[in-house]
Amino acid sequence: MKTILEIQKLDRQILALNREVDKCPASIDFKNYRKIMQEGRARFEQLEAQANEIVKNYDKALNKLSKYRGDSEILKKRNVDNINLENIGSLISDSNSLVGELSEENRRVEELVRKAEEVVRKSAELSNKLTEAKLRSANIKAKIEQKRNEVAPKIADVEKKIKELEPKVEDKEKYEKYKEMKEKGIFPVYVNLEDVFCGGCKVELPLNFIEKLKTKKMLPCEHCGRIIMMK
Question: Do 169 and 4 contact (CB within 8 A), yes or no?
């Protein structure tokens, strides 16, 4: 068991070295720029949907304008000789109604054009931001790789020590279980009982569990699955 705990200690060192890479300024910057690019792609999809809706509404508006203009031509071709006191009111009403509809539809078309111009402007701004983020991300990746190369020899040295210790492990079954749990992201695998708390997840343990642990010396945590040991 002592050898497994020594290996776990070395695995902690590897984890700490990898965290040096993950927490270096370049890695943090890269995560921020990656977020900008992800949000940018989502925004592009929104703008594309808006543009499609604008085009659809613009086509509808143009069809209406075409109809109203057709109606106006029919109105103009009415035989003026047939106008009398009885139908002149209807003719004036039809004319006023058509003028109002044409004016309203023209306003809608102008508004759609304005919205389309706004979408194009925002798309151009977003494209520039994404291009800049992409260029910066490439530079940041190089810095991350440089940091990774710095810690790589240290990690290799620790891994070599682990390889030297592995043949000395007596309980092969426990070591296989250790590796399996570590692979699943449960790390550290072996933790101490800290007062009445699990040394891994920090959850308070029931008294009957602690009493059993005093006898067994080693038990899996009911909450996180780590193996709790008596100090």
Answer: yes
Strands (E), the chain: 190-194, 197-198, 218-220, 227-229
Q: How far does Cα 108 stand from its chain's mean position?
A: 36
Residue 137, CA distances (Å) to 30, 43, 151, 192 in order: 6, 19, 21, 42
- Residue 197, beta-bridge partner list: 194, 204
Distance of CA 180 to the CA centre of its chain: 30
- The dihedral of CA 88, 94, 97, 102: what is its sign? negative
Residue type, 65: L
Going by C-alpha positions, the residue among 22, 206, 35 that lies closest to residue 130 is 35
Kind and range of the H or E element at 87?
Answer: none
Q: Angle at CA 230, nearest 5°, toward 18 and 10? A: 20
> Is 0.70 surpassed by the pTM of this model?
no
- Could you read off the pLDDT of 49-85 as tens digits, one per residue? 877 777 777 777 667 656 655 555 544 555 444 554 4
Q: Would you tell me how many other CB atoms lie within 10 Å of the CB of residue 38? A: 10
Amino acid at 6: E
| Cβ 228 vs Cβ 220: under 8 Å | yes
**Geometric angle at alpha carbon 14, from 18 and 202, rounded to 5°:** 90
Residues 6+ apart with CB under 8 A from 137: 30, 33, 34, 37
